[in-house]
Specification:
The complex is a heterotrimer of chains A (250), B (660) and C (242).
Chain A (H helix, E strand, L loop, with lengths): L3 E9 L8 E10 L5 H15 L21 E2 L2 E2 L20 E5 L8 E3 L2 E2 L2 H10 L19 H11 L6 H5 L6 H12 L8 H14 L10 H5 L7 H15 L3
Parallel strand pairs in A: 1-5
Antiparallel strand pairs in A: 1-2, 3-4, 3-5, 6-7
Helix pairs in contact in A: 2-6, 3-5, 5-6, 5-8, 6-8
Chain B lengths: L13 E2 L16 H8 L5 H4 L3 E5 L3 H13 L2 E5 L17 E2 L11 H11 L6 H21 L24 E2 L5 H19 L2 E4 L2 E9 L2 E9 L5 E5 L2 E4 L20 H8 L4 E2 L4 E7 L17 H4 L1 E5 L17 E2 L1 H5 L9 H16 L4 E2 L2 E2 L2 E4 L1 H7 L1 H19 L8 E10 L2 E2 L12 E3 L17 H21 L12 H20 L3 E2 H15 L6 H21 E2 L9 H25 L23 H4 L1 E6 L9 E6 L14
Helix pairs in contact in B: 3-6, 3-13, 4-5, 5-13, 11-12, 15-16, 15-17, 16-17
Chain C lengths: L21 H26 L6 H13 L9 H31 L14 H4 L1 H21 L14 H9 L2 H28 L6 H30 L7
Classes of the chains: A alpha+beta (250), B alpha/beta (660), C mainly alpha (242).
């Protein structure tokens, strides 16, 4: 089979303060081997040829690891498959489909233009404590602290987060707790992360709330939308760490 | 820098003075870095805050340097074009990072890593630099572990290592297939910690468009705020470029969509020499192009070649058949046939070229793109028979899944298709031992410089070099320069600042004004085709001369006929791309000139005219054992000027390789 | 003055307290909710006494009033319990309202199309279901504790709680209200118990999470079925008055 015809309804918004609207664009002869973003590239080439300004959307590595892309596709973060938008291919759709394309919607992720949103709130959450303080040159020999494999593996599982924001986009509360929990678990499972563990969770959760994300109510949409399949138990870990910090007087 | 020409060579370039001094200390190779660190001047901690550093790029090199200099107390301004420093393309590196820890007690050492890297670079890198790289490699692992990078571990809790890229020792540290991501996140977190501490000011969604050189020193940059479109001036005592490689000159590569040469090219135009631009690494195991719409290529770890067998049909007429129906006797396992001892595990460049040849013969497989099928089979049928599906999935599951997601074909049932793709560029801005370019005060780190990989980079060495530069080398060498500062305060009315800003404004206005018929991407795609055809896996004098003409014509058309819509004072992705493509159109020509002048084959540069009877790359050490550092020929179409830096090997003997 | 050089400590901007977080609000909900779970389990157990007859039921009700006498006055335990429950309900509702308000403010521009990845009805029904339960509890207290009004056929039922119960549930729509309320309660508990275990950090692994789900299912079923058995038994005449 070749050449799908699709109807796209895409959010267009000229700027951060502009009022946006859904605009309908028919596209024809779309190869099932195209990625979703390549399909948008093709549309943009056509728009440019017609003298219309192309649709702004973010993407960079296009191999599912940098976390820059992210679209709400027919109501699902990153579309119908468990993957990033850039790794979604048109064979996941059928001829004649109507596809809505929207930006992540959360007040903590304001729209910059069209489908591009500002996710600096995530950076600020990391700034609040998402690190281990180890100045360059101050590190001890790598083998001086063994890390039990199960802990190393769990840390790695959580560290797979790419900071794309799909968890926030999918959450009915627009909560960033999966992102946050992933970082708490990544650093908290390692011996190197222990000295700052209490302070880290308190500071990061405060920053998260301050940014205007909603609270978690354990619905689980985040994990299902996560392209890296980070499980809900990182939020559990986050809660546990906060409770411990509480008992330690934070 | 005087042009001592009695006419141009090939009508294309001139030869200038050779480079005499790279500032590397003399003496035993193992002592040189310590010597340099000791000689490098110190800066009083109280003075550091008064010294400002601009760092462009937040990948492993830039991110690590910004964090480290921030920790030291300098006033750092860090820039990236992405929405967050965590997105830099270092994140996509899969395989691992080398370090001479010798945890396996298998005979590894600093010297062996140094030796392997020099040899791997086909004797076109500097011994002093490479030794330093090997020396600090062990510190990198310590640093990353302390930051919480979750490397793979053994059950005893110690770090696991594997052997990578055909070397015989296990010195590669890894975090499943996401080593680059984990290392970058480590550097990113260290960077964000400094942002919180107030030592680093972060400018994301900012693209550097010009470097400011005042009174002979790099003193700042002109950057465009990609959200508001505002063209901003940022001044500092020193400027560091850590802006990655230029593989996107080929349009299709494994680089990120936004990876570009603009920062380094602008610096080149302001006087920084460009080193070895033609050295390009092409990776043999990428997923082939599926159609005209293709926007980028995806690499699969070459570990797949350990168990997969590469073949094409013997007859061109079998190429559109279902591969499972092609009988054994009609298959050509060409690598096993030509290189019986190494078979499917021949080095990257040999595997890549062999794939090109069989496809050029019309025996490629997969969909036709243009007139050719560009793909060869990577077949796991034997491995599945030998091992079991579970064992294969355990070892390669994530790669096979990735393949299936992209192609829609099930690799457990149908042989995969692969084809080479541009992956890394060894060339970059020329730097001395201190990583300082030929513009005083302009330092270059990571893939953006040319320094450590020679003509070819070993697997798992890119991450090593990025972090070595960022954490350990640059912070030590830049000190020596900063100790001379703070330099005289500049303000926005300085002639150099005014000139730089005006040129950026004019260029943006020009791009928006042309309003021609062709999109930016169509130019980029055409440039990519030219580069891939004539300056890709195999280069010939005739092809390169043709490419130069084609590029010049295309560049000319670009400036007459490109269509960039939208305005300058808003997020405008077409405008961003247009600026980048404009620079690629200039770089492409220099790459071809460099490839043309280097009439030998070495590493990632293969000249068809220079091969052995067996079709192996043939170096000409007597003529070409030098770094080609190119000086910009001037804005009015002046020819580039070649400065040669001779490579002297005191510790490693130059050998011709053979994989037969 | 030496300018700030290097950083070895976590920089702090503004006061950060664990008590000022949404996670803390959820803990408040979890703990107060847990108290309610214990209470409804006891309550449900008591209700089953109706199967032993009106007298046994009345006797049980009376014994609650005289529990721990004479150390405490008559009804003392009951009032302590009520006080605890009132504090819990206020805390639970207050925390829920805070989180609801935050969640509403976190996405002021809604999606045009939004599809839930799974039909998590129980989690989505927490807020409206919670309000419905609150209204139900008020109705329930008015009916059996505060006003004790009788909508049923037995005019003399006002003297005995057991008789009042039996008389009330002989009315089909009263039984229906309770049936619906217990379904709502079951759903609320199903998600609430699981959610509380998450919030309190008790289900860090997939296994523990599955266990928490199972526990939540059992509690929700036991409570809902246990509560609804007496009204249905009365409605269908299995349990009769004297």
């Amino acid at each position: 089979m070749t050449g799908m015809n699709l109807t796209l309804k895409i959010w267009r918004q000229a700027g951060p303060r502009a009022k946006g609207e859904m605009v309908t664009y028919p596209v024809t002869d779309i190869s099932p081997d195209m990625s979703f973003l390549e399909m948008l590239d093709v549309l943009n080439e056509q728009l440019t040829a017609r003298g219309e300004e192309p649709i702004a959307f973010d993407s960079d590595c296009r191999e599912g690891i940098c976390g820059m892309c992210g679209l709400m596709i027919s109501g699902k973060a990153h579309g119908p498959e468990v993957t990033t938008t850039c790794q979604l291919h048109m064979r996941s759709f059928s001829d004649g489909d109507e596809i809505t394309v929207e930006p992540w919607r959360a007040d903590a992720f304001p729209v910059i233009k069209d489908l591009v949103v500002d996710r600096e709130a995530f950076d600020r959450i990391i700034q609040a404590g998402g690190f281990i303080s180890a100045n360059t040159g101050a590190a001890p020999e790598a083998h001086s602290v063994p890390v039990p494999k199960p802990k190393a593996d769990r840390s790695f599982m959580a560290a797979a987060c790419i900071g794309c924001g799909a968890c926030v986009a999918a959450c009915p509360n627009a909560s960033g707790m999966l992102f946050l929990g992933a970082k708490i678990t990544h650093l908290g499972e390692l011996p190197q992360g222990q000295p700052e563990r209490d302070a880290r969770v308190v500071a990061m959760v405060n920053q998260h709330d301050h940014e205007g994300f909603g609270g978690c109510t354990n619905i689980g949409e985040c994990s299902l939308a996560c392209p890296k399949e980070i499980p809900q138990d990182v939020i559990n870990q986050l809660n546990l760490d906060l409770r411990r910090a509480l008992t330690h007087g934070h | 820098m005087t042009q001592q020409t009695s006419g141009l060579i090939h009508g294309l370039y001139a030869e200038g003075d050779p480079i005499q001094d790279t500032k590397a200390p003399a003496g035993p190779i193992a002592d040189r870095w310590n010597t340099r660190k000791f000689e490098s001047a110190l800066v009083n901690p109280a003075n550091r805050r008064k010294l400002s550093v601009i760092i462009v790029g937040t990948g492993l090199a830039g991110g690590a340097a910004a964090a480290t200099l921030g920790e030291a107390g300098y006033h750092v301004k860090s820039f990236c074009y992405q929405d967050s420093p965590r997105r830099a393309h270092s994140i996509a590196a899969q395989g691992g990072i080398n370090a001479a820890k010798n945890y396996k007690e298998d005979g590894d050492s600093t010297f062996r890593l140094f030796y392997d890297t020099v040899k791997g670079g086909d004797y076109r890198s500097r011994e002093s630099n490479v030794y330093r790289l090997a020396e600090v490699s062990a510190n990198i692992i310590d640093q990353c572990v302390a930051q919480g990078v979750p490397f793979a571990r053994e059950y005893g809790g110690l770090l696991d290592n594997r052997s990578f890229g055909g070397v015989q020792v296990s010195r590669t540290f890894y975090a499943r297939g996401q080593t680059g991501q984990q290392l970058l996140i480590g550097a990113y977190q260290a960077l964000e910690r400094q942002v919180a501490a107030g030592t680093v000011e972060m400018y994301s969604r900012h693209e550097m468009l010009e470097v400011i050189v005042a009174d002979g020193r790099a003193r700042g940059i002109i950057a465009r705020d990609l959200v508001t479109g505002e063209v901003e001036t940022h001044l500092a005592d020193v400027v560091v470029l850590a802006t990655g490689g230029y593989g996107n000159v080929f349009f299709l590569s494994t680089n990120a969509m936004g990876s570009n040469v603009t920062a380094t090219w602008r610096a080149h135009r302001k006087g920084a020499y460009f080193g070895n631009p033609c050295y390009t690494q092409i990776h043999p195991t990428c997923i082939p192009v599926a159609g005209e719409h293709q926007s980028k290529l995806t690499l699969m770890s070459e570990s797949l070649r350990n168990d997969g067998r590469i073949w094409v049909p013997k007859r061109a007429e079998d190429c559109d058949k279902d591969p499972r129906e092609i009988p054994e006797e009609d298959r050509d396992y060409y690598l096993e046939r030509i290189y019986p001892s190494f078979g499917n595990l021949v080095p990257r460049d040999i595997a890549s070229r062999a794939a090109k040849y069989v496809c050029d013969e019309g025996r490629g497989v997969g969909p036709k793109v243009g007139d050719f099928r560009r793909g060869v089979y990577l077949d796991f049928t034997d491995a599945l028979r030998r091992m079991s599906k579970e064992a294969v999935a355990e070892k390669y599951g994530n790669l096979l899944d990735m393949y299936q997601r992209i192609t829609g074909e099930n690799p457990y049932e149908v042989p995969m298709r692969i084809y080479p793709a541009v992956h890394y560029t060894m060339g970059g801005l020329w730097v001395d031992y201190d990583l300082q370019s030929s513009i005083p005060g302009l330092f270059v780190a990571g893939e953006a410089n040319f320094s450590d990989h020679g003509a070819n980079r070993l697997g798992a060495s890119a991450l090593m070099q990025g972090l070595a530069d960022g954490y350990f080398v640059l912070p030590n060498t830049i000190r020596d320069y900063l100790a001379k500062g703070p330099f005289e305060k500049l303000d926005d009315s300085h002639e150099a600042v005014v000139e730089a800003k005006a040129s950026v404004d004019a260029r943006i206005a020009k791009l928006l004004e042309i309003n021609g018929d062709r999109t930016v991407d169509s130019f980029h795609r055409e440039l990519g085709n030219i580069m891939w055809e004539y300056c890709g896996m195999e280069r010939t004098e005739e092809g390169l001369l043709k490419a130069i003409d084609l590029i010049r014509a295309l560049r000319d058309e670009f400036w007459r006929n490109v269509r960039v819509l939208g305005a300058a004072d808003t997020l405008n992705q077409s405008l961003e791309r247009a600026g980048r493509v404009a620079d690629f159109l200039e770089l492409g020509e220099l790459m071809c000139i460099d490839a043309l002048h280097r009439r030998e084959s070495c590493g990632g540069h293969f000249r068809a005219e220079s091969q052995t009877e067996d079709g192996e790359a043939l170096r000409h050490d007597d003529e070409f054992a030098y770094v080609a550092a190119w000086e910009w020929g001037g804005d009015n179409g002046g020819a580039p000027i070649l400065h040669k830096e001779d490579l002297v090997y005191e510790f490693v003997e130059m050998k011709q390789r053979s994989y037969k | 003055m030496v300018p700030p050089v290097a950083t070895n400590t976590l920089p702090r901007t503004g006061p950060a307290s664990a008590r000022r977080t949404t996670v803390f609000l959820k803990m408040v909900m979890a703990v107060s909710g847990a108290l309610f779970v214990l209470y409804v389990l006891l309550h449900m157990y008591g209700n089953l006494k109706i199967f032993s007859g009106v007298e046994a039921f009345d006797h049980y009700a009376e014994s609650l009033r005289t529990l721990l006498t004479p150390i405490l006055p008559v009804g003392g335990v009951l009032w302590l319990l009520r006080a605890l429950l009132i504090v819990s309900v206020v805390a639970h509702v207050w925390a829920a309202a805070q989180l609801w308000r935050r969640a509403n403010g976190a996405r002021s521009n809604r999606y045009f199309a939004k599809e839930a990845a799974r039909a998590a009805l129980t989690s989505k029904a927490m807020r409206w279901g919670g309000i419905a339960l609150l209204l139900f509890v008020i109705w329930h207290l008015l009916q059996f504790t505060i006003v004790k009004f009788n909508v049923g056929p037995d005019a003399a039922a006002g003297n005995s709680v057991g008789a009042l119960v039996i008389s009330s549930f002989q009315v089909w729509w009263v039984a229906l209200i309770y049936l619906l309320a217990m379904i709502a309660l079951g759903m609320h508990l199903y998600h609430g118990v699981f959610s509380a275990s998450q919030t309190l950090g008790w289900s860090t692994t997939a296994k523990a999470r599955a266990r928490a789900r199972a526990t939540a299912t059992v509690i929700a079923l036991v409570v809902a079925v246990g509560f609804i058995l007496p009204p249905l038994a009365i409605l269908f005449g299995i349990v009769k008055g004297n």
